[in-house]
Every structure is written in C-alpha cells, then in structure tokens.
C-alpha cells in the first residue's frame, strides 16, 4: 500500500497530545501549503477547547494546550526524535502551535518514500482488473456528457486499483439509473457555456478537434507556421488536444456540470493542460540533457541515491516541491476516494488542481535556479541532489497524469 509519512507524523503528534489514535476525518492538526518558512509545516490549536473529548487531562481555559498537558515545546521536539519525520523547531502563540520539520532528514525520507510509491502505483494500475463500469445507457454515443462519463470511469478505475477497492461501481449520467449490486457514481452533464443547457450539437470529435486546433495555433505562434506541415508535429498536437479535453472534463467535481466554450480565443480552454505538459517536457529535457552530457564526458555519472547529499537542497522552492507534492501525493490520492459504507465519492478534480499547483511552483523554481551548472567539483554535489529530486518530481507528475489517463510528453 501507499506510504504516507506525513500522515504517520500527524498520527504520532495526535497520540502525543491526546494519548489516543487519531480518528478518520479529524482536522485538528493542519498541514500547511504556503508560508512554510515563517508559519511552519504543521500546526494545531493551542487552546484546550477544540480538543474537548480527546484530552486525557483536566483543562484550564486560561492555559495554553501545552500548559494543560504539563508539557513543553522542548518535550514535543524530543519526543519526535523517535518518529520518522522529526521536529526541528516549535513556535507558539495564544491560538496555535507551529511545527517546523527537520528538513535535512525529511527531504531524503520523502524522496525515498516517493520512489516506492510511484513504483507501487504503476504496478497496481498495470495488474489490477477494473471493477468500474459505465452505465449501458451512457455508452455508444458521441455526446460530450458520454465522453465525460468515459473519462471519469477510466480515472476512477485507476484510483480503485491504487487503493485495492473491490467494490463494483457504475458510472452514469442518468439520475434514474439504479443498480442494486453496485455503487453508483453520478456524473454531471456537459453544458454549453453560452446557453447553460446540456450540449447536444457539439460532438466529442468536434470538441477534441477544436482543442487540437487551439493547440496548433499556440504552437504555430511559438514555433512558426511550418509545423502544420510536419506529420510528427501534427501527431503530437493531436495528442495535446485530446489531453486538453481530458483535463477540461475532469477538472470539475464529477457530480457537477462542466461548461464548455468552443470559442478558443475567449476561453483559452487548453491553457491548464498545455502548461502542465509543457513543464513535463521541461523536466524530461533537463534529465535527458544531463544524461547526454554524461555520454559526452562533460558530467560524471549520477551517484547512487544513498551516496547523494540531500542536505544541499536548501532553496525554499525545493522544500515546497518536496513537502507539498512529493511528500503530499499519498494524502492527495487518499482524499480523492471515499467508499466507506454506502458512500461512493470520488474527487479526481483534486488531482488536476494538484498538478496545476505543482507545475506553477516548478516553473517558478526553474526561472530562479540554474540546474545544469558548470562541471566544477564544488558545484557537482548540489546538482546531483537536484537531478535526483527532479527525476522523482517528474515521476510524481507522470504518475498523476497516468491516473488521469493522460500521456506524458518528452518535448514541446
């Protein structure tokens, strides 16, 4: 199963505070995603009231939580020495306690865990037989809502494979459909953005062709008009256009309606998908260029993971990428699936948001940092650490794309 070292840390923290196992869905301990350098990586309420029902001591509302527990930030830091992720600093105010993880050890732990997780997900998707199907009433039609049902079904099948959910699930756009032996996932319609009624005149082929033309227009603007005459470029643009449609139809909660506009100049509908794939290609190019320079004799071979000094990854964007996306992937995927009891809720749109955030931070990092430096001895160790990090970040990005059934690209 997926390793979730961040969730283990939160479980250990909850046990330290309450002496009890953290119940599912409890949100008292908060993982941060921004301002990590100033507000820490994790925080929790520093008053007793929110912890009512969990605390094992008599609480005084005038005291902070740590005072009520007869403990201190130093005790918490020392306790974490036995955890996989450790605390380097604790700050507090009247409202919250802020925890700063020991980045030097967390980076290595997070990268190593991600290596195993990406491999696990790939294996599960390859070998698992799907238990997700499409309502026959929604099959064999060329309408956009049926296309969305198909995309949702494929993504849910991949998520179920990752978490080994045996439940039989039927994806349908028909609210009247009922299946006694299966759970039902209701998929919202695709609406015309102008009329706000279900789109019935534009077919699936029409939308894909429209987005391919939009991608072609973007590429022609960037590379010149001759690319439309190149068969390889045309095949590549066709792939980008279809990927844009997948992303467009999945980036909204499945049960909600999706609005589409065929006027590319107004909407720029393919922008999200193209930016993600552009940065996927950028990562591939960095890694490929590094390997080419090894072959040329410019760079030495990349050292083994265990021989790499990851304490050199000190740039704030590097920690953002590792903490939020490499370490954060298991929590993201877990939040996308809820099949407890009679529930049947999936949130593949969260993967789309995750990818948009990831490539935005990576693009920002790429503009600031020269990754492939001169092959000088004192510059090589940090470059080695960055290449290892980017290989794992690239695999994490491609893992998410694969769950969405979007093929990654190696160049753009």
Automatic annotation (TrEMBL):
Listed PANTHER family: DALR ANTICODON-BINDING DOMAIN-CONTAINING PROTEIN 3 (PTHR16043:SF1), DALRD3 PROTEIN (PTHR16043)
* Gene name of this polypeptide: LOC114239704
Instruction: Tell me the Gene3D superfamilies matching this sequence.
Output: Isoleucyl-tRNA Synthetase, Domain 1
GO molecular-function term, one example from the UniProt record: tRNA binding
What parts of the sequence cross the membrane?
Answer: none
The protein's name is: DALR anticodon-binding domain-containing protein 3-like isoform X1
Residue span(s) of domain DALR anticodon binding: 276-412
Q: Which biological processes are named by the entry's GO terms?
A: arginyl-tRNA aminoacylation; tRNA C3-cytosine methylation
Upper lineage ranks?
A: Eukaryota, Metazoa, Ecdysozoa, Arthropoda, Hexapoda
Q: Which SMART domains match?
A: DALR_1
Pfam families in the cross-refs: DALR_1 (PF05746)
InterPro entries membership: DALR_anticod-bd (IPR008909), DALRD3 (IPR037380), tRNAsynth_Ia_anticodon-bd (IPR009080)
């Amino acid at each position: 199963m997926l390793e979730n070292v961040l969730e283990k840390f939160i479980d250990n923290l909850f046990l330290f505070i309450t002496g009890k196992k953290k119940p599912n869905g409890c949100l008292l301990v908060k993982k941060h995603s921004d301002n990590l350098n100033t507000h820490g990586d994790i925080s929790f309420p520093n008053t007793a009231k929110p912890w009512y029902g969990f605390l094992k001591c008599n609480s005084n509302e005038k005291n902070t939580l740590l005072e009520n527990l007869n403990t201190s930030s130093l005790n918490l830091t020392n306790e974490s020495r036995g955890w996989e992720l450790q605390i380097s600093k604790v700050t507090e105010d009247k409202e919250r306690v802020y925890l700063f993880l020991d980045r030097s050890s967390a980076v290595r732990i997070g990268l190593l865990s991600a290596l195993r997780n990406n491999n696990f997900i790939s294996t599960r998707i390859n070998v698992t037989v799907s238990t997700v199907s499409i309502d026959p009433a929604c099959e064999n039609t060329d309408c956009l809502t049926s296309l969305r049902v198909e995309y949702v079904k494929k993504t849910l099948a991949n998520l179920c494979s990752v978490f080994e959910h045996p439940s039989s699930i039927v994806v349908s756009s028909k609210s009247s459909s009922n299946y006694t032996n299966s759970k039902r996932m209701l998929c919202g319609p695709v609406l015309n953005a102008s009329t706000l009624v279900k789109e019935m005149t534009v077919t699936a082929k029409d939308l894909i062709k429209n987005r391919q033309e939009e991608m072609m227009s973007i590429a022609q603007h960037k590379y010149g008009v001759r690319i439309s005459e190149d068969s390889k470029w045309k095949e590549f643009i066709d792939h980008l256009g279809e990927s844009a449609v997948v992303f467009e139809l999945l980036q909204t909660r499945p049960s909600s309606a999706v609005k589409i506009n065929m006027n590319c100049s107004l909407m720029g509908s393919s922008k999200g998908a193209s930016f993600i794939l552009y940065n996927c290609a950028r990562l591939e190019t960095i890694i490929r260029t590094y390997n080419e320079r090894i072959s040329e004799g410019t760079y030495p071979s990349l050292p083994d993971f265990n021989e790499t000094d990851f304490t050199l990854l000190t740039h704030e964007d590097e920690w953002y990428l590792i903490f939020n996306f490499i370490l954060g992937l298991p929590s993201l995927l877990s939040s996308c699936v809820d099949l407890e009891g009679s529930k049947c809720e999936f949130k593949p749109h969260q993967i789309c948001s995750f990818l948009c955030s990831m490539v935005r931070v990576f693009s920002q990092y790429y503009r600031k940092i020269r990754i492939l430096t001169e092959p000088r001895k004192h510059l090589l160790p940090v470059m080695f650490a960055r290449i290892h990090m980017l290989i794992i970040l690239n695999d994490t990005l491609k893992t998410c794309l694969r769950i969405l059934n979007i093929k990654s690209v190696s160049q753009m």
